[in-house]
């Protein structure tokens, strides 16, 4: 597979090394607004060829990526300590719209990692010529992974045995679906040792995880690199995994339409299916509707794309 990465800051470089270790790319093209940085990263990554599955790495221009099987956009302004993802919107919407237009005719998938990822996924759909199914944001895949890790730690099981999801915005209005959470097929509510009183604290931990990391080290990068590489591997291999990716939805029952947000979708080589609306209790359904409104308002605040 040929994969392109645009933006080689903290996140883009972590995506690159994770993609190489995953073995999904036979050719990796890296691109940055600073050509020298792209060339240097390509050289540095290529020097590690003895330690990952065979792949050729080289620097490229944006227009060179149009024949890729997938292009990852990790470009844009990163969050400062205490800054919400939506605060990045004005600057990053213009960047993503411009890059998407330069990728006109892309034959593969477009993966948005830059924040605020949900609104930027909608921007990419509007600015580009790709069908919504082929424009995927990493969405709440990372939040879901954080939730599973926190729950696994709490009850003493491997995170991979935890089946629980975060939906809606990748951000402050995200929704943890406690009512459908399971451990190895057993409802979380019935799992020995689980204390439901811990749920609010864990939800807050998951929602604030990025803030806490940025406060300490300046950015979040390793986990999202792993998430993005896994998404690429599962999608391009056509595994038809059900993932909480962000995609633009024309209509979702109970949520209206014209919004990009994370819901379970079947993801394969052709992109993400229409959403599969999960079972939710009334409070979760109302919270998800509020999250959709937050994202619609955020998109409207940008106005017409430049």
The arrangement of helices and strands along the chain is: EHEHEEHEHEHEEEEEHHHEEEEEH
Radius of gyration: 19 Å
Please state the oligomeric state of the protein chains shown.
single chain
State the CATH class of the largest domain: Alpha Beta
Q: What name is given to the CATH topology of the largest domain?
A: L-2-Hydroxyisocaproate Dehydrogenase, Chain A, domain 2
Helix content: 25-40%
Total count of domains? 2
* pLDDT averaged over residues: 95
- Strand order in the largest sheet: 3-2-1-4-5-6
Q: Largest sheet at a glance?
A: 6 strands, parallel
Strand content: 15-25%
* DSSP summary: helix tally: 9
Tell me the distance between the termini: 33 Å
Tell me the structural class: alpha/beta
Unreliably modeled segments: none
Total count of strands: 16
Silhouette = globular
Instruction: Find the CATH superfamily of the largest domain.
Output: Lactate dehydrogenase/glycoside hydrolase, family 4, C-terminal
The assigned CATH architecture of the largest domain is: Alpha-Beta Complex
Question: What is the structure about, briefly put?
Answer:
The chain has helices at residues 10-22, 35-46, 89-102, 117-127, 141-155, 199-207, 209-217, 222-236, 282-302, and strands at residues 2-6, 27-31, 56-59, 70-73, 109-112, 135-137, 162-163, 166-167, 175-176, 182-183, 186-187, 241-243, 246-249, 259-262, 265-268, 271-272. With 306 residues, it is α/β, with parallel strands linked by helices.
């Amino acid at each position: 597979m040929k994969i392109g990465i645009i933006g080689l800051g903290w996140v883009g470089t972590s995506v690159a090394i994770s993609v190489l270790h995953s073995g999904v790319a036979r050719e990796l093209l890296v691109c940055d607004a600073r050509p020298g940085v792209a060339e240097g990263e390509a050289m540095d990554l290529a020097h590690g060829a003895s330690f990952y599955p065979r792949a050729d790495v080289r620097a490229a221009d944006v227009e060179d990526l149009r024949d890729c099987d997938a292009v990852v956009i990790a470009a844009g302004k990163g969050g400062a300590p205490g800054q919400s993802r939506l605060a990045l919107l004005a600057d990053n919407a213009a960047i993503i719209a411009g890059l998407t237009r330069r990728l006109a005719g892309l034959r593969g998938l477009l993966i948005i990692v830059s924040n605020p990822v949900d609104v930027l996924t909608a921007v990419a759909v509007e600015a580009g010529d790709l069908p919504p199914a082929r424009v995927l944001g990493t969405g709440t895949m990372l939040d879901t992974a954080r939730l599973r890790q926190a729950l696994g730690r709490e009850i003493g099981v491997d995170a991979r045995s935890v089946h629980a999801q975060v939906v809606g915005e990748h951000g402050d209005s995200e929704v943890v679906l406690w009512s459908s959470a399971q451990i190895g097929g057993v409802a979380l509510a019935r799992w020995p040792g689980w204390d439901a009183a811990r749920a609010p604290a864990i939800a807050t931990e998951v929602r604030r995880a990025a803030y806490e990391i940025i406060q300490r080290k300046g950015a979040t990068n390793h986990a999202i690199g792993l998430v993005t590489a896994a998404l690429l591997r599962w999608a391009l291999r056509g595994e038809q995994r059900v993932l909480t990716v962000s995609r633009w939805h024309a209509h979702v029952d109970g949520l209206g339409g014209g919004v990009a947000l994370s819901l379970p979708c079947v993801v394969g080589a052709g992109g993400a299916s229409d959403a599969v609306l999960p079972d939710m209790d009334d409070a979760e359904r109302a919270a998800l509707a509020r999250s959709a409104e937050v994202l619609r308002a955020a998109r409207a605040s940008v106005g017409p794309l430049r």
